[in-house]
Specification:
heterotrimer, A alpha+beta (259), B alpha/beta (721), C mainly alpha (399), A: 259 residues, alpha+beta, 2 domains, three-stranded mixed sheet, two-stranded antiparallel sheet, 8 helices, B: alpha/beta, Rossmann fold, Dimethylsulfoxide Reductase, domain 2, six-stranded mixed β-barrel, 24 helices
Chain lengths: 259, 721, 399
């Protein structure tokens, strides 16, 4: 994560979310999403425990707009780009529908139009950060409508400070961790929770982005190609020379033996 | 030219795959011009218009984003105190109500059997004439009281009442008795006001009895509760179900249904008994404290523990914690308090608890009156009505306000023909077929009708069983009278042209009124004229109000220590009740309990729906959990029942089939049905066929004091279908 | 049902039942493809947002490419190591590989969301994506193999100049082809590098490309043996047992190397702890190792097995089965996409996946196409001949 550029980000506070789904309806309307598709999902164990000792853990989530997006790394035609101010954008004009991005994303965010044929065009759909609102000074639709301020929007560093302050103010309420601060190299959807994050449906991820090994290995491609090529060429030349010498030698030795 | 209502009969609004443009709505004249004049829309027809939501009674202020004459997005109006910039899921889905492909967009006249759903389109002329002539006919033959008028309370209610009372009928049905009669009457008896205003800014300890604010969302109040929880305020929540509010509360008490009153009586017992109440407040502002103190002596914590299932330690601890917070406490009255016949008593206990804590003026304040400070068109006085009301108010039920009535008793009066037979029913913005308990009986009542007229925006169940359906414009398409919230009067104005032939209620009522010879009660030329007359006393122009969305009302200094009771004080003992032969002080009433093998049938709310009216909204349907019958997981396991099993639930009055949802989130002696489903109207193409209707099972009860229905007093048997 | 089909007086063909069947499968696959183009990928498959890749990727891409690795091995053996005795095998192996790659490209035309944009690999390029490299490798290598096979066509057409030109170009072409092939086989494994949290630790490792390459060599050799055995039976030609036995002799060393590298990595990274207590994953892993590595390694160590037609075939089949299982494990069986506690009633994607009949039918149809073309090529082109007629056995004579 670059420190100097301000990235737009979200906080989701699972202690405030009441699972009303206003965010989902708002997103569907704002972004004209088809009735059988959604960009925001509900995750989590839900109700946990045995009556009457119960607890509830749910989370709504959408694209995490990661700092080192795995979708961006994986897409062969570069259909994903990350704006300098954070949002990860998908460009359907380049997409070939290979669905490698769906493999790459550890959160399972990109969803594909399995029901669209060639003429309609099958594309990936994901949260686009409501750029049409955000670039005009409004909050993303989900944040703007949330009745309990479970969703907040702002600048990442400020939100991180806010999140940590909130944990410090109520250590008995929160798990002492802001999910997304470092996970997968840092995401722009930061999560606060009262229950372990895996109970919200979040994967346990290291601080290195999941695309790191892939990108390291791929940078070896050219050296490997040259190296292997060199080895094979040398081998070929060597073998060729050796065989030619051998032929010469045997030809010299037994000139009448022609076979 | 008869055919069943189908979505193809109506304005073709595009496919279900998204919000698509309404055909023919480009730059339409009237509304667009008005919006342009107000500065909301530019030449292309794009802009933002302030108005009011109507997806529930909270009526959040909204900002409607319009593009080329189509509503494309709704946002909360940051200036409106009920929304504060937010909208709940229903509010966000509101434009799908307007663009619902199943909308009624022309008047309809029945041609088939009642309940077949066969209608033909008619002109307004024909339909209105038909209704008016039919009503006059019935008036002539049977008297004006033979027409029942019912409407769920909304902003045009004064004009609806003009039809009712001008016509000369006393029979006024509202949804109130199915919802909060107990709360309102208790407040009237105690404070002389229907509902005090609640203020969360200073509260430190809250007891919520029901009032599932996190699912029965009232945007700003839900936000307030969430915020105070965030800040560390203690919230004790009583509910036999582990709702989403339970998951946010500091403490969830899975109280036995019907025993909320016992819990509060025990708190009164401890707080009064140990002298932890606000003595000076009680002395200055209340009457009847000594009687109350004497009465609650017997309601000890162990008495309450046995009844409620909550431990003595918990009750005692909460009483002490609550008392320690002094006037920074709030015992929330709740809203839908139609649980048990003793719910009125529960409400009296809650108001008593608030009173003795002296939190009036800190967390509770006088409520604002509706329409206070606004003008109204002149109208003559109503004619005298000599006929008795079919719902027994006030001759059987003296304490039920006439404006509230008892809806279930009204239905009973129609079925029984007692004291006379009703022959017509005029319904506006209401779905009594689904909402009144014991749906089978309501349909019986309908069969006694010669003329049923329904005003609605979609072909809901009541419309399905009607003779004439009149299309109201949806809330995004119409003006309504102003809505006073706090110190402002808020405007609902159309943001798009009404589709099809749909018209505002103000227009429909006036048209009908004139045909009924009641033109003098509708002295406004059109909706805007009505609004101007409302604004006249405060001297604000309608154009100004259209721009900002509200009019500022002159603020009067509140006189909060003044109550509109006979004594002028808070009445912990009500002479009025006592004289009428009821208990003047709150006194324990034993609720009925289910027999062996029966369950309490609970009802409640979900965030993605409003009662019976929104299940057809495709956006809400998209995000709704499938409606099922909840049963405690251990109990279900014992009976060999699994998730998704079809079960049959039977009460004394009905039977339904529904899918089962075993869950830990409910008491073992209860079952719960997701409300609002099981629609009968096949014209609701999204909602029809989904879930089952709990009204089929609900028995009819009436609390003699408040007239409240007792929805949880229905006990059911559940078995595999 | 044998039918005499006269397309042209000079081309009379007996259409055998097998060919009818193959044509039938192709037609079915074609119809399914049309349906897919009309109604979407979901209409003909069980792929979902929980499982974006499934049977096609495992079968057509991973397995198809692995079994095509024989080409670069044999080509390298002949033209780099100048072991000319293997020449008779070259064209058949090249043809197998070329068809394997073409079949993969055909599968892509069904599977991709936008098959009409398949050429976007050439104009939009993200160089951090292994899938880009694979896309380019496939297209380049098809060209190279076509070039390496072109002498067979030129012979038929008697274009001597072209034949001579290709002869000179062969060695550099083979080197380039080998480099591309090695990188390609490795890249297939590298495709999975980007999902370390989704591929079970017994398989995911940063050296996955290396493991894929090593096993690809073994698979290529195994496929060479398998294809030679089958075509010798079907086209009634001799089996070059002596050549195949030499190839088979290297297999134990290659598999041994694989075993060492694999287990060294498992212990080094600590993932060895998953070896025995991972339920189904353990079963799959050990099945791979036992069937695809240990058994062939030991089998081919015995000269007796290497020098009989039956022994060669048995060893090759088992090797292929085990290694194909490995490809399926890495791309499907050991991959967990679905977040099983995500719930949303309307949108819940199935948390499990099994291919639909139409998915399998598509692959069978494409495979049938490959077999059919192979048969046609063998019949009408000098595939089993080398450029020196005098040295090779005459076609269509038994052995």
């Amino acid at each position: 994560m670059t420190e100097t550029i301000k990235h737009k980000a979200f906080i989701f506070d699972a202690t405030r979310c009441i699972d009303c789904r206003a965010c989902m309806v708002a997103c569907s309307v704002e972004n004209n999403i088809a009735l059988n598709k959604t960009r925001i999902w509900l995750a989590g164990e839900g109700i946990m425990g045995i009556y009457p000792d119960l607890q509830r853990g749910t989370m709504v989530y959408h694209c995490m707009h990661c700092g080192h997006p795995d979708c961006l790394s994986a897409c062969p035609v570069g259909a994903y780009t990350k704006r300098l101010d954070g949002p990860v954008e998908y460009d359907g004009d380049k997409c070939i529908g290979c669905r490698y991005c769906m493999n790459a994303c550890p959160f399972g965010v990109p969803h594909f139009d399995y029901d669209k044929g060639i003429i309609e065009g099958a594309f990936i759909d994901k949260c686009s950060f409501c750029l049409q609102r955000v670039d005009n000074g409004l909050e993303p639709a989900c944040v703007a409508t949330c009745p309990t301020d479970a969703l907040e929007y702002g600048e990442r560093d400020e939100l991180l400070a806010k999140a940590h302050a909130r944990i410090a103010a109520h250590p008995e309420r929160y798990i002492n961790h802001v999910y997304g601060e470092f996970e997968n190299g840092g995401t722009s959807y930061l999560i606060l929770s009262h229950v372990p994050f895996n109970q919200l449906g979040l994967p346990t991820l290291p601080e290195t982005p999941v695309n790191e090994v892939s990108e390291q290995v791929i940078s070896l491609t050219l050296p490997a190609a040259l190296g292997i090529g060199a080895v094979l060429t040398v081998t070929a030349v060597g073998v060729s020379l050796y065989n030619k010498n051998k032929e010469k030698a045997s030809a010299q030795k037994e000139p009448e033996d022609v076979k | 030219m008869t055919k069943t209502i189908s979505r193809r009969d109506f304005l073709k609004l595009g496919s279900a795959a998204g919000i698509t443009l309404a055909v023919g709505q480009m730059l339409s004249p009237k509304v667009a011009q008005a919006a342009r004049d107000a500065g909301h829309l530019n030449a292309a027809g794009d802009g933002t218009i302030p108005s009011l939501c109507e997806m529930c009674v909270w009526r959040c202020g909204l900002l409607a984003k319009v593009q080329k004459g189509v509503v494309v997005k709704l946002d909360g109006n940051p200036d409106n105190p009920h929304s504060r910039g937010n909208l709940c899921p229903r509010g966000q889905s509101g434009l799908m109500n307007t663009y619902d492909p199943d909308r009624v967009l022309t008047p309809l006249i029945r041609v088939g059997q009642r309940g077949e759903g066969l209608f033909r389109k008619a002109s307004w002329e024909e339909a209105l004439d038909r209704v008016a002539n039919g009503m006059l006919d019935i008036k002539q033959k049977y008297g004006p009281e033979a027409i029942v008028f019912s409407a769920t309370h909304n902003l045009s209610q004064p004009l609806f009442e003009n039809l009712l009372y001008g016509f000369g009928s006393p029979n006024y049905g509202t949804q109130r008795s199915l919802c909060f009669n107990a709360m309102i009457v208790a407040n009237l008896m105690t404070y002389g006001t229907e509902e005090p205003a609640r203020n969360y800014s200073k509260v430190k300890y809250i007891i919520l009895t029901g009032r599932n604010l996190m699912e029965a969302i009232s945007t700003s109040e839900t936000h307030d509760l969430s915020q105070v929880i965030d800040e560390g305020v203690k919230v004790v929540y009583l509910d036999p179900r582990y709702t989403k509010t339970a998951s946010k509360a500091s403490e969830w008490l899975p109280i036995k249904p019907g025993t909320d009153m016992a819990f509060h009586l025990a708190l009164l017992n401890i707080i009064i008994g140990e002298g932890l109440y606000d003595k000076s407040f009680v002395e200055r502002y209340t009457v009847g404290f000594d009687i109350l103190a004497q009465e609650v002596k017997k309601y000890s914590p162990d008495w309450a523990a046995q009844i409620t299932g909550i431990s003595i330690e918990t009750i005692t601890r909460i009483a002490h914690e609550f008392a320690a917070a002094g006037k920074y406490t709030l015992a929330h009255n709740g809203w839908r308090t139609s649980n048990f016949v003793n719910s009125f008593g529960t409400q009296r206990a809650i108001t008593a608890l608030n009173t003795i804590m002296g939190n009036w003026g800190t967390t509770l304040f006088p409520g604002s009156g509706e329409g206070a400070g606004l003008g109204a068109p002149l109208q003559p006085p109503y004619p005298r009505v000599s006929a008795l009301r079919l719902d027994g108010v006030p001759w059987k039920y003296p304490f039920v306000p006439l404006k509230l009535g008892i809806f279930q008793e009204l239905r009973e009066g129609v079925v029984n023909g007692d004291p006379y037979q009703a022959h017509g029913w005029f319904i506006s913005r209401q779905n009594p077929v689904m909402s009144i308990p014991d749906r089978g009986r309501t349909l019986q009542a309908f069969r006694k009708m010669d003329l049923i007229t329904t005003i609605d925006i979609i072909p809901n169940d009541t419309a399905w069983f009607s003779d004439v359906v009149l299309p109201e414009a949806s809330y995004l398409e119409r003006f309504d009278p102003l809505n006073v919230v706090g110190d402002k009067a808020w405007l609902r104005q159309p943001v798009i042209e009404p589709q099809g032939e749909a018209k505002s209620a103000l227009w429909i009522y006036k048209q009908l009124g004139e045909r009924l010879g009641l033109g003098e009660y509708f002295q406004y030329t059109d909706e805007e004229d009505y609004l101007r007359q409302q604004l006249a006393p405060i001297g604000v122009s309608l154009d100004e109000v259209k721009k900002t969305g509200y009019a500022q009302l002159p603020v009067e200094p509140p006189n909060i220590y003044n109550w509109n009771t006979t004594t002028g004080k808070i009445e912990l003992f009500s002479e009025t009740l006592s004289k009428a032969g009821f208990e003047g002080v709150v006194k324990w009433e034993e609720p009925p309990v289910p027999a062996e093998g029966q369950f309490y049938l609970l009802t409640g709310k979900m965030a993605q729906n409003t009662q019976f009216g929104t299940q057809n909204n495709q956006l809400l349907h998209k995000y709704s959990d499938e409606p099922r019958l909840w049963m405690n997981a251990a109990v279900a396991a014992e009976r060999g029942l699994k998730e998704g099993d079809w079960v049959e639930a039977t009460s004394d009055v009905g039977r339904i089939h529904v899918m089962l949802h075993p869950t830990e989130a409910i008491r073992p002696d209860c079952v719960y049905m997701t409300p609002g489903y099981g629609h009968l109207s096949k014209a609701l193409t999204t909602a029809y066929g989904i879930g089952a209707c709990d009204s089929v099972l609900h028995k009819t009860f009436t609390d003699p004091i408040s007239g409240s229905q007792a929805l949880s007093q229905t006990f059911v048997m559940v078995q595999k279908a | 049902m044998k039918a005499n089909l006269t397309i042209h007086p000079r081309l009379r063909m007996n259409i055998s039942p097998l060919v009818w069947a193959l044509l039938g499968f192709m037609a079915l696959a074609g119809l399914i493809a049309l349906y897919r183009y009309a109604f979407g990928v979901g209409a003909i498959s069980n792929l979902s947002n929980s499982y974006p890749w499934g049977f096609w990727v495992s079968f057509d891409l991973f397995t198809g490419i692995a079994i095509s690795s024989g080409a670069f091995i044999i080509a390298a053996v002949i033209y780099i190591f100048e072991l000319k005795e293997f020449k008779p095998m070259l064209r058949a192996v090249l043809l197998t590989a070329l068809l394997g790659y073409i079949m993969e490209a055909m599968a892509l035309m069904i599977e991709l969301g936008h098959p009409e944009r398949i050429w976007y690999f050439f104009i939009y390029q993200n160089w951090t994506s292994f899938l880009l490299f694979i896309g380019l490798y496939v297209m380049i290598y098809i060209a190279i193999m076509a070039a390496e096979l072109s002498p067979a066509v030129f012979e038929k057409l008697h274009w001597e100049k072209s034949i001579n030109f290709m002869k000179r170009l062969m060695k550099p072409l083979v080197i380039v082809g080998a480099v591309i092939s090695i990188l390609h086989q490795g890249s297939l494994g590298a495709l999975m590098l980007i999902q370390p949290t989704k591929l079970f630790p017994l398989w995911w490792t940063p050296i996955l490309p290396v493991l894929f390459f090593i096993s690809a060599v073994a698979v290529g050799l195994g496929m060479t043996i398998f294809e030679s055995s089958l075509s010798s039976r079907y086209f009634k030609r001799g089996l070059e047992v002596h050549l195949l036995s030499k190839l088979a002799a290297t297999i134990p060393f290659i598999l041994g190397l694989y075993l060492v590298v694999k287990f060294f990595e498992l212990f080094y990274s600590g993932d060895a702890k998953f070896l025995f207590n991972s339920g189904t994953m353990s079963v799959l892993f050990w099945s791979e190792i036992l069937i695809g590595v240990l058994f062939p390694m030991i089998w081919f160590a015995f000269k007796r097995n290497r020098q009989s037609a039956k022994g060669l075939l048995v060893g090759a089949v088992i090797l292929l089965f085990g290694m194909i299982l490995n490809r399926f494990d890495v791309s499907w069986f050991a991959v967990k996409h679905a977040n099983s506690i995500t719930y949303m009633p309307t949108f819940m994607d199935p948390a499990t996946y099994f291919p639909s009949w139409s998915e399998i039918a598509v692959s069978i149809g494409i495979f049938s196409f490959g077999i059919l073309v192979f048969g046609l090529a063998v019949t009408y082109l000098p595939v089993f001949e080398t450029e020196d007629h005098a040295h090779g056995p005459a076609p269509e004579t038994g052995d």
